[in-house]
Specification:
By secondary structure, the protein is α/β, with parallel strands linked by helices. The chain contains 17 helices and 11 strands. It has 3 domains: about 5-100 and about 135-195 and about 305-345, HUPs (Rossmann fold, 3-Layer(aba) Sandwich), CATH 3.40.50; about 210-300, Tyrosyl-Transfer RNA Synthetase, CATH 1.10.240.10; about 355-445, PH-domain like. α3 crosses α12, α7 packs across α8 and α10 (about 250-255) crosses α12 (about 275-300). The structure holds tryptophan.
Length: about 450
């Protein structure tokens, strides 16, 4: 099996998706996820949203709207891993591990942070006025998003390239410090889709909420129509030839049209189609493609518990990858179980204890005795004589109950005492060293097995 390319991207949940988001990011991502070679991880970056927004209502609404938009747009949750960042507790945990290796100087250079500082300085404020640690550490959280799943490709806008580079930087540093030759993290690459044009907005600038020039996506046909009617055009009258290549209305049309539709529209504009009619054509084109997903969108929004279920399944899939990987990383930095720490000796003891065995027998005189044999079958102890089997059995039980052994050495041998009486003896040894080794072996053999 060839390894599939893992494609991962996050969507910050602060707004309502508009037509520009759809054409520029959502539609291409859904298409990319249909490639048999793609293993896509798409998530709602709702922890990132908290950095930019302190309005809980808006955060919640945006999470739902974005989830519904992607699902309505045809995202197949059986093919991709679709989840909310905040459902993956391993991500903030990894964020901390990465925070501890990320150079502060690296984060000082982040564009978003620097822009805020510059703005403060310009207006004579304290350089860090209004800047939270969240904003400052934004790239580390994003690095955790990416590195947690060892993404190969990260489709992002140009403004995010630096963040992907920082993820590489931080991941590399972690690999170097803790990998011991092993590369824990895959080095991600930013994927900038050159072919998807950024859609122009109503006024011809990039469509963006901050310019208030967006065309709504799934709210309603009427809203879409109203927005389209506000697209700025030149003042050429009906009948006058229009220049398609200098019309952002035409660019918008192009982003949704087939080649044939595009050519027909171009010809009509050149022949003097009126702008009002042109807007109508654009509306018809968009509505023909978006009315079905719009319907699905409203269905999804009216059944939030269905979306909740889908996202929890997605979280489960993501955590099945994240949890074992994080366990490895914790191990690597030294956050290890105290029990596992002693793994080697405990395992050895268990094995010996399991294998060591008591063998009882009866002497010719009718007395009961037993031998304790090591795993290797070597005699560790030979008991004294007991009048009956019950007593002999009770002694073997007591020897295995984990209490400190009362061992008394005599020359190069030793005996085992219980309640003030010798109950068993070792063989004789060549010297004290071998005797002490035998005592150690006996202690190991009698260590109770805990499960
Ligand atoms: N910062 C990204 C943005 O604003 C969103 C995001 C968060 C992201 N984590 C990510 C994108 C991980 C790609 C990979 O667009």
């Amino acid at each position: 099996m060839t390894t599939r390319t893992r494609i991962l991207t996050g969507i910050t949940t602060t707004g309502t998706p508009h037509l520009g988001n759809y054409a520029g990011a959502i539609r291409p991502a859904i298409l990319a996820s249909q490639d048999a070679n793609a293993d896509s991880f798409y998530f709602l970056a709702d922890y990132h949203a908290l950095i930019k927004c302190d309005d809980p209502q808006r955060i919640q609404r945006s999470r739902m709207e974005i989830a519904a938009t992607w699902l309505a747009g045809g995202l197949d949750v059986n093919r991709v891993t679709f989840y909310r960042q905040s459902d993956i507790p391993e991500i903030p945990e990894l964020t901390w591990l990465l925070t501890c290796v990320a150079a502060k100087g690296l984060l000082n250079r982040a564009h978003a942070y620097k822009a805020s500082v510059d703005k403060n300085v310009e207006s004579g404020e304290d350089p860090d006025a209004g800047i939270s640690m969240g904003l400052y550490s934004y790239p580390v959280l994003m690095a955790a998003d990416i590195l947690m799943f060892n993404a190969h490709k990260v489709p992002v806008g140009r403004d995010q390239i630096q963040h992907v580079e920082m993820a590489r930087d931080i991941g590399q540093r972690f690999n170097h410090l803790f990998g011991n030759g092993k590369e824990f993290f895959t080095m991600p690459e930013a994927l900038i889709e050159e072919s998807v044009a950024t859609l122009p907005g109503l006024d011809g600038r990039k469509m963006s909420k901050s310019y208030d020039n967006t065309i709504p996506l799934f709210t309603s046909a009427k809203d879409m129509k109203d927005a389209i009617s506000r697209i700025v055009t030149d003042s050429r009258a009906p009948g006058e030839a229009k220049d398609p290549d200098n019309s952002h209305l035409f660019t918008l049309f192009q982003a949704f049209a087939s080649k044939a539709q595009e050519q027909e529209f171009r010809a009509e504009l050149l022949q003097g189609l009126g702008w009002g009619e042109a807007k109508n054509r654009l509306f018809q084109l968009l509505d023909s493609q978006l009315s079905e997903p719009r319907e699905r969108y409203h269905q999804l929004m009216s059944r939030p518990s269905d979306m909740e279920d889908l996202l929890l399944i997605g979280a489960k899939k993501a955590r099945a990858v994240a949890a074992p990987f994080l366990a490895e990383l914790r191990e690597a930095v030294g956050l290890r179980s105290f029990v596992n720490q002693a793994a080697a000796p405990v395992a050895a003891k268990k094995k010996a204890a399991k294998a060591a065995r008591f063998v009882s027998f009866r002497e010719d005189d009718g007395s009961f005795r037993f031998r304790l044999l090591s795993a290797e079958g070597e005699q560790l102890l030979l008991s004294r004589n007991f009048a009956d089997g019950k007593t002999a059995g009770a002694v073997t039980k007591q020897l295995q109950n984990g209490d400190a052994l009362d061992l008394r050495t005599e020359a190069t041998g030793f005996s085992v005492w219980l309640d003030g009486a010798a109950v068993a003896d070792s063989a004789g040894f060549a010297d004290e060293t071998s005797r002490d080794a035998a005592i150690a072996a006996l202690r190991v053999a009698l260590t109770p097995i805990e499960d």
